[in-house]
Amino acid sequence: MNDVAVRFVTRADRELRNDRVRAAVRHTTSLLAANRSTALDGLADPDAVRDSAHAIRRRAIDTLPQLLDRWAARATANGIIVHRARTAADAVRVVLDLADAQATAGHSPVRIAKGKSMASEEIDLNDALEAAGHEVVETDLGEFIIQLAREKPSHLIVPAIHKSRFDVAELFTTDAGRPIEPDVDAEAAYARARLREAFLRADIGITGVNFAIAETGSVCLVENEGNGRMCTSLPRVHVAIMGMERIVDTWAELDVMLALLARSATGQALSVYTNIISGPRRDDELDGPDEVHVIVLDNGREAIVGTEFDDALLCIRCGACLNVCPVYRNIGGHAYGTVYSGPIGAVLMPLLRPDDPASRELSEASTLCGACTEVCPVRIPLHDLLLRERHRDAPGDASRLRRVTFRLWSVAWAHPLSYRISIHVVRAILRLSSRVPKLARRAPGWAGAWTRDRVVPRVRR
Amino acid sequence: MPSFEHESPALTNVLPTCLADTLRPTLAARVLKVLARHGVAATIARRTTCCGQPAYNAGYESEARRVARPTVRALAKSQGQIVVPSGSCTAMMSRHWPALFAGTADETRARDVAARVIELSQALAAGSAPPAAGDRDKPVAYHGSCHLERELGERDAPRAALRAAGHEVREPTEGYLCCGFGGTFAVKLPAVSVAMADEKLDSLSATGATTVVGCDLSCLMHLEARARTRRLPLQFRHLAEQLTVRGDE
């Protein structure tokens, strides 16, 4: 077996042994999956809405360059400063330069309040900002928790899904320097006071983007805690980072996407806050930032457009596929070792990082059960994409032993007679090995992988 | 209801599947028996091997093609429908064979066969109503396999067949969750696979039924192997086995 495969197996096994994490993840994903199901049933014709959402997203990807240009022209006319970032480093550079400008203007150290943004996680923005001496506070409650734990999000929507209230109390106690009880209300009260301070002091607010709207040059940001609204209105500078594919043409299209996003993510008909940002504060307005910057992030996306895999770019990051994935439910997000986890992570990472073996191997993180495909609001054929990735990568990535195994098997089963003979051989082996279970458990390779925790399959007459 | 034979003069062919050949050699005969009861005259297809799915799902297309080719050619010589006692193999043949053999000499054959393949419970539903069942109201837990339910979209036919045979059909909670087999997944990520089996076995046990029925030997083999390790009092039967159980078997 090659080293890469060992690495994912090892991470998955380690997470599996953590009963507390597994219980927390199973509990929350089951809840979210059930909520989603109920919420979708609340739509008059959920299948028609999903078809329509698929068509909208498909059109956006098919006309991406034109759509982005149209959006950028309007946004610029509105006073938004648009930056295009080809790589993660380019995007980080833009933010660092903006922070430096604040420092030069006398606001040092530069204080940054961040809303939830997977794109910023993708480019490891916090590490870069802190290394440059800036102060960053994550203001989404879940993100705040994992920032204190110095971890990465383990779920698209619920970044601290793996943390219990006891874990949170420990983290908050350390942060506060006084005991915080493992009580949800006490924890929320502490976070509220702590984060309010961060909002009021922030020089820069950084957020993600759920959808850019080409028609008016706006960006839409949905959230449930109000922290996103704070980050986009209180600081002098607002920086929004969006994956380049996260765009729709019109408000009518946005309406369709919003009807599905919160329902698929948490089971809400609409998230508590839907923020639409169309430009900086105008002269006649009281609130709002002086500058609004939007960073359009490529980082491997454009190369996927036009390939047989580009349905992966339809994703609206609702997390529904994670909640129904039996693999994700058992190992959680950290086992994947990448910023995006679950089925969409397993599909996306081998595409975004085609040269990284640790990302490529994630197409193995599935039984191809298709539960993900069934719930995807924009109808991404997730498990078919995983299969196509295996077809693309597996033969080249596999160890020599594995390639030879499949080759020998295919030769043996290429003729009815040799097939018959080999079936008899296999039956004999299974019968014999079931008589010596202790020996069977110590068998090497795939045989031993089966028998360690499962008996040898019973052969009947 | 008219008998199926009159509508289709060609004899229905049954592909036993490689797992049945290996683990339950009598399954194909039981399939013939059940089909006959539903008015479908059938025969076991000869000179077939496997559908190629183990290699195909692991990423090895040329190996999958090599293994599936004799099966494609053997079945292409037949006429009428081809019944497969596995949702997974049926999905492989009907959904993936046309793409797998595209551009090869067997493309037309693969398309022809793909269009005629039907899963066992679907064939039963399309056949005539079976003779009235005796008063066997023994509850069974039904495990809906992923490829049958989602690739083929078949949820009703197996349950209906069990009810027609007089069974009370019980559903495990979160029944859509995979049992963790997944072909080579079961040995590439064995601990995850076992954790998934355990979750499924717990919900099957909670139904109170001691017999678990499914339409895919692969899931049943996996669940049984784990259940026996845990010494759970569950027995696992393929639909064709459950419908041909004799007496107190």
TrEMBL record, chain A:
GO molecular function: 4 iron, 4 sulfur cluster binding
Positions of the 4Fe-4S ferredoxin-type domain: 305-336
GO biological process: lactate metabolic process
Listed Pfam families: Fer4_8, LUD_dom
InterPro entries: 4Fe4S_Fe-S-bd, 4Fe4S_Fe_S_CS, FTHF_cligase-like_sf, Helical_ferredxn, LUD_dom, LutB/LldF, NagB/RpiA_transferase-like
Key words of the record: 4Fe-4S, Electron transport, Iron, Iron-sulfur, Metal-binding, Repeat, Transport
UniProt protein name: Unannotated protein
Organism encoding this protein: freshwater metagenome
Lineage: unclassified sequences, metagenomes, ecological metagenomes
TrEMBL record, chain B:
Cysteine-rich domain boundaries: 14-93, 140-223
InterPro entries from the UniProt entry: Cys_rich_dom
GO molecular function, one term: oxidoreductase activity
GO cellular component, one term: cytosol
Organism for this UniProt entry: freshwater metagenome
Annotated protein name in UniProt: Unannotated protein
